[in-house]
Amino acid sequence: MNLTLLMYLIPSLIMFGCGVYGFITRKNMIAIMISLELMLNSVDINFVVFNRYLFPGQMDGMFFTLFAIAIAAAETALALAIVINVYRAAKNVDIEQIRKLKF
Amino acid sequence: MPLSYTIAVIAIPLFMFLFLGLAGVKMSRKLTGVLGVIAMAVTTIIAYGVALTYFFGTGQDQVGADGVRQAVTVFNPAWLSFTDTMVVRMGILLDPIAAMMLIVVCTVSFMVHLYSLGYMSDHDGNAEQGFQRYYAYLALFTFSMLGLVVATNLFQIFVFFEMVGVSSYLLIGFYYSSPAANHASKKAFIVTRLADLFFLLGIMILSYYTQTFDFSQLVFGANGANDMAVAQSAIASAGGATFLGCSVMAWALTFIFIGGAGKSAMYPLHIWLPDAMEGPTPVSALIHAATMVVAGVFLVARLFPLYVLEQGAMEIICVVGAFTAFYAAAIACVQSDIKRALAFSTISQIAFMMTSLAVSSSNSAMIEIHGGTGLGYMASMFHLFTHAMFKALLFLCAGAIIHAVHSNENDKMHGLHKFMPITSIAFLIGCLAIAGIPPFAGFWSKDEILVAAYHKGFFWGLWMSMVAGMTAFHMFRIYFLIFFWKKHEIHTHHAPKDQPWTMTLPLIILATISIVAGFVPAHDLVTWNGKALETQLDWTVAGSSVLIALIGIALAYKLYYKENDLPERMKNGALGLWTAAYHRFYMDELYQFITHKVIFQGICVPIAWFDRHIIDGFFNMLASATGSASFAIRRLQSGSIQGYVYVYLLGVLLLAAVTMLCVLI
Fold it and tell me: What is the ipTM of this complex?
């Protein structure tokens, strides 16, 4: 059976939807971060797939994805550090409770 | 280039200003003073070398084949270039008046540097606070003044005009804790700045039409001396353009004269000079008697050929000068503060020089009528030279007296002759010189001025002779009131005496110069076109002027030598006139009225209102509108991250929907 572009895009779309849903509904900051990663990875898949199907001879999208993964890792580390500090200060990681940054 | 060492004359004071100003606080006060004096001595020696080489050297540079003393441009590098033709240069130009001014400025400055060692110390010889600052300012002033006199173009003169103004401001306000000194320095600065505005306007008009700032293209001919033909072509470049019925060149030259009048304290811009006496007395001697205040005369002399061709501007100068001479001499007759009386006498003498320039005619038609060319010019420059010497002497004597009795008022002095014989004799020599008694310096120069004035017309000659008589009277009035009148009452804990050698030596040197300076052959050296001028003493004029001076002296002797009630009776006889003269004919009050009541109330207050309410109001409105709008929508910032994401998502979806719709349609 031939794998078409759409066959990759649909799982990616589902992943992205899950990410958005998780980001909006979850209360735990760790869970929100996982949702965030989900969205990011779905975008990475899109990159690779589009590169593979639209510009088969080139590797730009692949490399870009590698970069994105590396940056995402760094960013996650940063976010985790923030979460830990928030936990130390507020003794919990519930996003509903942490809403002091306002007017 | 011969004479290239002239640069040292400018560079040393500049270096000393920076050095004493920056490193002075690290050194002892005495040391800075001594260093300042040594540097000034070196500068003076070099300046004398330059001037003597220029006047008596035989090189082809300065004296051409036809015996005309030429101007030598030593340096002239470009500094700013506005257009291809209009380039501002900064350079050194030596011509007879510049070389003469080098001597004047350096001599007086050196004397003042030396004198200040004593004057700026208390009676035990300890230097005053701010000693380093004082010497740094003196060096700054000397640098600026020297830069002014060797300027090669109008713009350079303007720059240094401002710089002497600044150093004058700094030195008048030297005792910055005294409110009177602060007011005086501000007044001097503002009044001269107002005049400099006109100066700048004049430069702009002149350079717009002639396309140059350089004297070499405005007044100097091919042989390097002042040349009428060059000035004629400069004036012709305006193409006969007129404004309000006068040629634009006449306007430009009048504006430039106003700039000079501000510095030279011509009526009605003289009001700052008497107040400037709040500064230390050596400063008054250097800046407000001998050098800076003659900058205006120097400026007019520098552009002399242009002025000669614009007789309208010349007439204005003549009238202003003659009136100022009389006005200031009248006020000087009643002042009780010794320095103020000397200041008014200075104004009167500078007005003499201005008038002398103005009555000097050297266009060809005038030569035939008067049989002399540029006599007034020569007389004016000569008087500038001699006046600088004897007026500096008088001021330094006044400083010695003030230092001894701790007061500026006549009634604290009286009868000092016994206590301060050297000062007394030096002051007497200064008075004889300014009164014009032969063979003292003032006689020779003042006589030439009077001759030039009689050439212009009998009225002008008579007027100036009268003022000369008044000068003799008011100077000897001061002299007798200080040194005689009655026995001295000792007000302070020690009796006044002649001051230490640092203060006495300059007096002796300047007194000597005041005696012999009249024999300097100025008519050979300092003439408008570089050619030696044939003059002979006009005995009718000389005799009558000496007679008038003697009458003035005799009158002063009668009234003020011994204590009597005659002056008081005369004062009460013409009380109104006396009071008006004592209050300087209410010029300061008039200025006060015009600035406060007319300008401030009538113009500044409405403009300030417009600025505060209309201009500022518009921007305040913008700010408050933005502020209240932000306040209204601030609740959107809820702090709930998921709320933001939700709104963001909706927005993206909406955008996507709209895009889809557009694509589909």
Answer: 0.85
